[in-house]
Design brief:
Layout lengths: L1 E2 L1 E2 L2 E2 L4 E5 L5 H18 L8 H5 L1 H9 L4 E8 L4 E12 L7 E10 L8 H14 L6 E3 L6 H9 L13 H12 L1
Parallel strand pairs: 7-8
Antiparallel strand pairs: 1-4, 2-3, 4-5, 5-6, 6-7
Helix pairs in contact: 1-3
Length: 182
């Protein structure tokens, strides 16, 4: 574990950041479900986690933690003796695009009562170092439309929307196609 820093200065020693281990899996799964609930409130038409995926989350994160191209981080609160934030970064390579490698940020979560204390910035800062050590110069992430907290956060860090993904129920599209044929 390491004490948190912000702009090179020590932060509140209450919080410690560490690379996640299997001992953190229960809290990581709890936070991932909290993230999913937050996303569903932000955008009710968002696809939900399937029961199968939900039951496999612990094993999913265990596999991620064992991959050297993925960094799963957690922040621990020494006062409450609990994990209060998480995030992960993936080093990606792709021959079909330039740049040929990038970093992807996923599953950033800070428990609500610990927000506005620099924890998200700390997670991002450590992931940026992880990516920079691999020579990665471009980062990507996704956030849900309607998740205003995420939009504000990512804009603050310099991210800009470049792609929209749209969903529609098949019957609605069929109906529109039929209406345009007549």
């Amino acid at each position: 574990m390491c004490a948190l820093c912000f702009k090179g200065k020590p932060m509140d020693s209450r919080y410690l950041l560490k690379v996640a281990t299997s001992e953190d899996l229960g809290e990581i799964v709890r936070m991932r479900f909290s993230l999913q609930e937050h996303l569903a409130r932000s955008n009710p038409v968002l696809w939900k986690l399937s029961p199968k995926r939900s039951s496999e989350l612990s094993e999913f994160y265990r596999r991620l933690m064992s991959n050297e191209d993925i960094r799963v981080l957690v922040i621990y609160d020494t006062e409450t003796m609990s994990t209060v934030a998480m995030g992960l970064g993936r080093k990606l390579t792709h021959d079909e695009f330039v740049p040929s490698k990038s970093g992807r940020i996923d599953d950033i979560w800070v428990d609500p009562e610990h927000r506005r204390k620099g924890l998200c910035t700390c997670l991002i800062s450590h992931l940026v170092k992880f990516f920079a050590s691999a020579g990665i110069s471009s980062l990507t992430l996704e956030y849900v439309e309607g998740n205003h907290e995420a939009e504000q956060t990512w804009t603050k860090f310099g991210f800009h929307s470049v792609l929209k993904i749209a969903n529609a129920p098949l019957p609605a599209v069929e109906e529109k196609c039929s209406a345009q044929k007549s």
